[in-house]
Amino acid sequence: MDGRTFFRAFRGGGGGKNGMSELVRLTEVTKVYQGGITGALNGVSLIVEKGEFTAIMGPSGSGKSTLLNLVAGLDRPTSGSVAVGGTDLGKLGESGLARFRRDNIGFVFQFFYLLPNLTSLENVLIPAQLKGSDATARARELLGQLGIQDIADRFPARLSGGQQQRVAIARALINSPTLLLADEPTGALDTHTGDQVMELLGQLNRDGQTILLVTHDAKLATRHAARVISVMDGKIVDDARLESPERAASEVIRVRSEEASR
Length: 262
Description:
Largest sheet: 6 strands, mixed
Helix content: 25-40%
Order of helices and strands: HEEEHEEHEHHHEHEHEEH
Radius of gyration: 18 Å
Structural class: alpha/beta
Number of helices: 9
């Protein structure tokens, strides 16, 4: 997922949310890019329940970002099906997918992708404006909840990396998404700031937000997520529901090590 996806992710109108506890379902999903011999994903089946904080972990090229793009409706599988909130994304056209993303999905990227000529508040409001709603009060409330209400009128160039990522999180939440997708959200941050961002995501999950996180960092994943899915060569090689952070980290790292040595 790259920055170009942000604006096409929020165009369109209409959509609804589903009350089912099952939020995401992938069924035998394969994705082969043009010219590819092996798939970026190979027969992946997965269910994510509403309210889960799930981390998808794997090395570069393992297929984890491809999986996230398919769940977001930013890409289509070569075969298999992807459903989110009871909606089969394969049955939606491009405008329908855009409306679905705008109304149901929040995105947090590694590199923030804030518009430099807009203030923090104006950046947060972009998805709501594309939806045609006045959400200024909610935007200020989100900035307050994230501890950055005092930077509402500052431009991105005057913000630290941590402040920019918090603005990006507020932007992702402005339309009250069913699902928050985070693609390496701490990758451009120092360790301390990254931990703060992950704590914020953890609090959002405790407040009921479903989060699907992509990361290559096993310790980060096991410290904050309740479920860690390991992907290698386009396949799910481990799916761990964590009982305790100490036990989980060692087990997930062991699985990663075993797969990498094959």
